Amino acid sequence: GTLTMAAAASTSPHTPHRRRRPDGRPGGGTLRPLSAEVSTLSRPDGSASFSAGHTRVLAAVYGPAAPRAASREDPNGAVVTVVWKHGAGTARKGGGGGEKGGGGSAHPGYGATERELERFVGDALASCVRLERYPRSVIEVVVQVIRADGSVLGTAVNAAVMALLDAGIEMNGVPAATTCLVLRSGGGGGDDDLRLDPTSEEEGAAEAAVSVVVTDNVNEGQVLTTITFGNLKVASLLSCVEGATRAGKAVVAFMRLAVEQKVTREAQTLWSS
């Protein structure tokens, strides 16, 4: 079954702006409703779909398996590879009118190439997988964007993490990604308007953005990696990281709940059969 949750506000103390956002959210620190489904596909070793608002990404995990080429083999641990795909005619947020901005399906990484996105997602996943448990093997993660309405990169990371959990891959912690957008304030010298989990409309007006991946391991809230787009003031970058870290904790809790729900459902099926 699908687990859905209206995510709680995660406003950073340095994000004072309370103006209502295009999709109706009350402030810049509020996430969109989250939805997830585990074991969505039968052929991969693990799969999951993850949605944030209208953005939906499907992820599939194949492996651990022997690499097709010996050159991709690491005798000390697994190699994590990521393939980024767009569904045929990837949908933008539904409706007739034109969407503002270029964030959506065409530019999920604010101008980054698909190869750069694959590398970012792969590095984020590899930092939490216990690679030493799977020597001389490859773990391939295929990420497919089904519907794009902002925050595609963060949603893709979260879908991939849930697919790894579904595949039973051993991990040091559960990472979660959140995107924070920077909209320049109208007046000179004012604080920037920071918005977590932006829509494509908000992305179209953005000056800069940062995607932050945090983990829930022993160092809870530890920032694993970030990727920044555009020019950010140091104060804005720190506020974005702080807000995204707070939001990441809520996302991790949601992902754990979705996986636990699946395990409970399977156990009930096993005992009732």
TrEMBL record:
This is Exoribonuclease phosphorolytic domain-containing protein. Belongs to the RNase PH family. Residues 1-50, 89-108 are annotated as: Disordered. Residues 37-50 have a biased composition (Polar residues). It comes from the Eukaryota. It holds the Pfam family RNase_PH. Signal peptide: none annotated. It is found in: Nucleus. SUPFAM superfamilies: Ribonuclease PH domain 2-like, Ribosomal protein S5 domain 2-like. One of its GO terms (cellular component) is nucleolus. Keywords: Exosome, Nucleus, rRNA processing. One of its GO terms (biological process) is rRNA processing. InterPro entries: ExoRNase_PH_dom1, ExoRNase_PH_dom2_sf, PNPase/RNase_PH_dom_sf, Ribosomal_Su5_D2-typ_SF, RNase_PH. Residues 92-106 have a biased composition (Gly residues). Its main location: nucleus. GO terms for molecular function: RNA binding.
